[in-house]
Amino acid sequence: MSSANPPAVQDCIVKDGAQHLSAVRDGRAVYLNGKLVGDVTAHPAYRNAIGSAAMLYDHQARPENIERMTFDLGGGRRVNRAWQHPRSYGEMVERRKALVEWAELTCGFLGRSPDHVASSVSAQYMGAEVFDRHDPARGKAFRDWYEHARANDLFLTYVINNVQGDRSKAFGDQGEGAEDMIARIVDEDSSGITIRGAKLFATSAIMANEIFVGSGQPLKRGEEDMAFSCALPMNAKGMKLLSRRSFEEAATSEYDHPLSFRYDENDALIFFDDVKVPWERIFVYRDTDMCRAQLHDTGAHVYQNYQAQIRLSVKLRFLVGLARGVAETIGTVNMPPVREQLGKLASQAALIEGMVLGMEAGGQMVGEYYLPNKHLLYAAQVQSQEMYPQVIQVIRELAGGALLMLPSSVEDFSHPELSRVIAATQISPAMTGEERVKLMKLTWDAVGTEFASRHLQYEMFYAGGQYVTRGHSYRTYDWGRATGMARNVTQSYQLADFLKKSDQAA
Q1: Parallel, antiparallel, or unpaired for β 228-233 and 282-285?
Q2: Distance from chain centroid for Cα 460
Q3: Which domains are delineated in the chain?
Q4: For residue 381, which of 288, 306, 491, 452 has the smallest C-alpha distance?
Q5: pLDDT tens digits, residue range 138-193?
Q6: How many C-beta atoms lie closer than 10 Å to residue 424's C-beta?
Q7: Helices 114-126 and 300-329, interaxial angle, to 10°?
Q8: Distances in Å between the alpha carbon of 68 and those of 78, 96, 101, 149?
Q9: Strand 156-159 to strand 35-36: parallel, antiparallel, or no bridges (unpaired)?
Q10: Confidence (pTM)
Q11: DSSP state of 335
């Protein structure tokens, strides 16, 4: 069927949650608490988070949502708008609205939802001539893999950071005993390369379909063995996922931990134990500068972080809503100092959302595609890294002891005497005692639990240290326009003119 006459949306093929769950049951090697996990979709450490990812696909597949959430690839196939290549400001806005809708389903707490890495690799595809200059064969390999990933609406994750090791030394100079610390090429033949070593941070890898492996950190001459990028299925032979502690597994109930029970996307260290990668899945080969170019000479770094700011704007809106709910619950919402704090929180959330809109309005065509404004993106990152801890702190201050004066678990309600005490002490001018407990437990899971602490660390550092984001802001700002105004003023008068007037007056 021609693209001029696409099939009705209800007749299109769209990935749904059942398809995603089936694909994740692939025998991937996930380790937790010293044991091989097995089926991650059924394990109490991961099943709900994976279910939340499946829920996103179910949402896009509902007939009433298909037009907004997906676009037509041709041949009756539709995929999420994260894979869309905007050719105008209007298409970028249309795409962003779909990403916002997905983020709202998880309150922004799936930091590496499927639209994140899809945004990055889509921008790499839009700038794929960068690969061709490196090696036409690598360019073809990337295009072929990308088209496969997009056609199947894959949930991708990535590992583009190296293990910290000794930060006073270069990655390639870690010394004896560190040979397997950082993933590197250890062998190659006519069929591909073999990689051994580790990469970070495989957020959402446990629920993803495939993983992109690259280097987002600078490499130097002599580190060519580390200078590669590739893509692998999550069940690749020899690839081991070492999971961090599962907050989902520690969540006693959805009532007591409503966020960590559902949205603990998990983070993992990936160890490549002599993993064979075929040439058709290798995109950068032994070129340290190309590792940089893949992300920065294409629009990848911009698009992936633009998506992150879209998601964060939703998360901040959720947190500001929680702050207002806390103030209403404990009866302080009409106090002038509290309203002042809420007003500041609202302005901070609106600042990031406004900067997202500015990135789009201030964007430009690069070739045939529309890219958001780089500097506004990096400026938003600088602001949000500082802002997120401040927002969390204000919510804690607004709540005070209310976050500590809570029943130990939902089980307390089943005890008649305890239930009576709860009803007598959980008093609110805005809601019932039970509703108050629910709101405060939700708030604590957002700002105080181990799950919340992980999110605080994530939002502060997912884009790199502050010196990194501030460096991007410095690099992309229009300094000529800014300093030019002062220069125009100082050049409008000359010392000689004043001396001449002084001589004449004398």
Answers
A1: antiparallel
A2: 12
A3: 12-298 (2.40.110.10), 300-481 (1.20.140.10)
A4: 306
A5: 999 999 999 999 999 999 999 999 886 665 666 666 666 667 889 999 999 999 99
A6: 9
A7: 150
A8: 11, 10, 9, 21
A9: unpaired
A10: 0.94
A11: S
